[in-house]
Structures are given as C-alpha cells and as structure tokens.
C-alpha cells in the first residue's frame, strides 16, 4: 500500500496541470500523484510525462471520477484537491501530518485568506450562504462546505459513499464525514487565482442547497394521515454535533 498520495480530479486542465504537479512535487518529492481524469485535451499526456498516474473514467463528471478513484487507490493517506492551481500545495505536508491524528482534514477558505480576484463576489456570497445553511441543517461547525481540498485516511475515503454527479461532491463528502462520525479537523487555507476557465457557476450553489435539504430530510413517509418526516433517519444524521477541531494556517 502507498504511504501518501494526492488525487487531482481533472477535466481539461492543460493550461495549469504542469504547474500544479510541479508545486506538489516541490513540497513532497516522494508523494504519488493520481489524476481522476475525463479530459478531452492534453491534460493526461502532460500529467503522465511528469510522473503522475492517470485514472481514466468512462463517464464525465467530477463526482463520478472521484468515486472511481477512491475505489482504485490504496494509500494510507490521501489528499484530494482541485487541479486548477487555486489550492495551496505548500499545505500538503501539514495535512499529511494532521492525518496522523485525524481521519479527515477539511479545509476552509472562509477562515483563511482569499486572494483578490480569486473568487467572484457572487460565488463568495453563495459559498458563505451555503456553508451557513449547512451548519444549521447538518448541525455542524464546518465553515466551508465547498472547499475542494480534503485529506483522508484510508478507512475514511474507502467508506465514503458518493452518489452525486455534479458539484455537490464536496458537500456530499462532508455530509458523509458528519454522518459517519470520522474524527475530523479543519485547516484554514488561502485560496488563489485559478489557471484556465472556471467550471463552477453561482447557480451550482442552489443545487447544493437542494442537495443539503434532501440529504438532511432524507425520507418522507406516507401514512394514514399523509406525508411525514422519518424522524429516526433525521435524528440519526444530525443528533450529535461532531467535534471538528480547528487549526490555523501554518
């Protein structure tokens, strides 16, 4: 089994993939890099030329690609991050170290620093609103449910069920982490400008709100007097607020 690995979900990231891989190797030369790839451009060829292992997926979609990669990768510690250059590769060693103690390490751009121009105002508002909504409906103290940089131990990512197919991926992972009571920490990070064209739109925030509501109220049962919420399932999901340890950016 591999000791440390980084997973990069990729779709047409040829403009920046080389810089991202180079930045990862600069802080951890021995880490194994995997691409969960559904690109139609030169992204996989560039990555392979730099020593990364490309896991091609049959279907397009970040969530599908990541779910497939989780099944195929065997690493004691795994960090997933977007391959657009927005997330700080220099925090990879910090997250790996934190995984000695925690099963999952989430990251927060809200508690960290967003570089000027890195996130449009509408996207920032959507992220703040969605994260606040998640804290209420999931009864959690996670501050950034849309961050694309997450660290896992083997037992965590192997037991996370991914069923979404769009940008609900990170929210679905966090919901799974909360529901399955993994020992979790949150690290404040900085967020920079991306390479290439953004793929997420503000409308995706509303899709995520819908997903959160559907997940937190998972079952409506029809009885003699009509529809009712399955309170057992709801309580099972949010009965106890998980203790999310918070760490500052180093």
Distance from N terminus to C terminus (CA atoms, Å) equals 29 Å
State the secondary-structure class: alpha/beta
CATH class group: Alpha Beta
The succession of helices and strands, N to C, reads EHEHEHEHEHEHHEHEEHE
Number of helices: 9
Extract low-pLDDT stretches.
219-242
| Number of β-strand runs | 10
Mean pLDDT: 84
- Looking at the structure, the CATH topology is Spore Coat Polysaccharide Biosynthesis Protein SpsA, Chain A
Percent of residues in β-strands: 15-25%
Q: What count of domains describes the coordinates?
A: 1
CATH superfamily: Spore Coat Polysaccharide Biosynthesis Protein SpsA, Chain A
Helix content, binned percent: 25-40%
Question: What topology, given as strand order, has the largest sheet?
Answer: 3-2-1-4-6-5-7-10
CATH architecture: Alpha-Beta Complex
Using the CA coordinates, give the radius of gyration.
18 Å
* Global morphology: globular
Biggest sheet layout: 8 strands, mixed
Notes on the structure:
- The chain is an alpha/beta fold and 250 residues long.
- It has one domain: Spore Coat Polysaccharide Biosynthesis Protein SpsA, Chain A (Alpha-Beta Complex).
- The protein has nine helices and ten strands.
- Strands 3-2-1-4-6-5-7-10 form an eight-stranded mixed sheet, sandwiched between helices.
- Helix 5 packs parallel to helix 8 (203-216).
- It is globular, with a radius of gyration of 18 Å.
């Amino acid at each position: 089994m591999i000791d440390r690995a980084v997973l990069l979900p990729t779709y047409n990231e040829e403009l920046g993939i080389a810089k991202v891989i180079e930045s990862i190797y600069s802080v951890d030369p021995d880490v194994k890099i995997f691409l969960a790839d559904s690109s139609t451009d030169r992204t996989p060829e560039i990555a392979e030329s730099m020593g990364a292992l490309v896991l091609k997926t049959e279907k397009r979609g970040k969530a599908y690609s990541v779910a497939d990669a989780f099944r195929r990768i065997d690493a004691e510690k795994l960090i997933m991050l977007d391959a657009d250059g927005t997330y700080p590769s220099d925090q990879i060693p910090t997250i790996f170290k934190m995984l000695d103690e925690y099963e999952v390490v989430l990251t927060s751009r809200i508690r960290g620093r967003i570089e000027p121009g890195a996130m449009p105002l509408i996207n920032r508002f959507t992220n703040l609103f969605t994260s606040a909504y998640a804290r209420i409906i999931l009864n959690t103290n996670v501050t950034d449910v849309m961050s694309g940089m997450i660290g896992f131990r083997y037992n965590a990512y192997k037991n996370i069920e991914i069923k979404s197919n769009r940008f609900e991926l990170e929210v679905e992972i966090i919901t799974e982490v909360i529901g399955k009571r993994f020992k979790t920490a949150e690290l404040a990070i900085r967020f920079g400008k991306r390479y290439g064209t953004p793929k997420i739109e503000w409308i995706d925030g509303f899709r995520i709100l819908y997903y959160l509501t559907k997940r937190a109220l998972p079952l409506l049962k029809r009885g003699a007097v009509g529809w009712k919420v399955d309170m057992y399932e709801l309580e099972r999901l949010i009965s106890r607020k998980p203790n999310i340890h918070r760490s500052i950016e180093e």
